[in-house]
Every structure is written in structure tokens, then in C-alpha cells.
């Protein structure tokens, strides 16, 4: 049975994900071997295959862990007892901050998604669709209440915002002039201005 933690108590799956994330970001998914991942994590191939069935599973988990966080946080904003503008603005800013906080994961995913197996690709698309549909539901709620303009279809508004989010990994730099929260505030404000009646 593989050890579940190392000397400092870090669980093996987290060590494998950390090593895979670093190597995928530095070298690219297709140029990173399973051997390099296990060596960087300090475990055996047996340990990797105990927790992840394949390198494909590691790539999927790199993305899925961020999406899980974002989905939990969107669920929180959607359930809040607050005006819809406040809930949408919070959700719009939060997805920017959590993406920047996990920039390597986002970059790896959008650069390497095409390497996923058809089954995993389908699963990821379903997970993303669920997130986008819940985000769109907030926009539609505001449109139906007359708080947001109906001039632009909600689907297009969602695509507009997430187009910006998905490109963060191509231009955002931690040592740049804007903090993650400042970028989030600007993009959330742009979204709400676009929806103003």
C-alpha cells in the first residue's frame, strides 16, 4: 500500500498534483513524462497509479479542483440574501480572483484541454456548462426583474465575461500594476455596466 503522506505530512495526491502542475506549466503537458512527475513528487509510479489512473487523470484534476472551488463559491453567491446586482458582481469578481490565484492551472488547462480523452473532455464540458448556466441564471434573474437590460442575450453576456476570465493566463502577471482584486473589480464593473438598463 503506498504511503498517504510524506515526512512533512503532505498527502501523496497533493504532492503528485503539485509536481504535475509545475511540470505541465514549465514544459507543457505533452512534453512531461509520468516518470518526471513521480520523480518530482518523490513517489513511485505505483503510487501515482494508485491515486490517478493516468496522466490524463492528473490533467483533469488540475482543472477540476479549481472548478470545484469556483462552483462552491458561485453556489454561495447564488444563495445569498442580497440584491441580484450584488450577487452577480460578487460572483463575477470571485471567478477572476480564483482564476488568478490558480493561474498555472488555468494556463495548463486551456493550453492542454485537447489532450484529454473524449470521455474526460465531455465531463469537463458538462462541469463548465453547469457553472456557466448558474452564472447565466443570475443575469436572467436580473433581466426578468428589470434590474438588468435585456438588449443583449444573457448567453452572450456570459461569453463576454468568461472570455476575459479565460485569457487572464495570457497577460496577467503577479508583479504587474494591478492586484488580483483590482482586476476582478474592473472586470465585474465592466460586466455590470454592460447590463445597465
Automatic annotation (TrEMBL):
Keywords: DNA-binding, Repressor, Transcription, Transcription regulation. It comes from Streptomyces incarnatus. SUPFAM superfamilies: Homeodomain-like, Tetracyclin repressor-like, C-terminal domain. It holds the Pfam family TetR_N. InterPro entries: DNA-bd_HTH_TetR-type_CS, Homeodomain-like_sf, HTH-type_TetR-like_transc_reg, HTH_TetR, KstR2_TetR_C, Tet_transcr_reg_TetR-rel_C_sf. Residues 33-52 bind DNA. Signal peptide: none annotated. Residues 10-70 form the HTH tetR-type domain. This is TetR family transcriptional regulator.
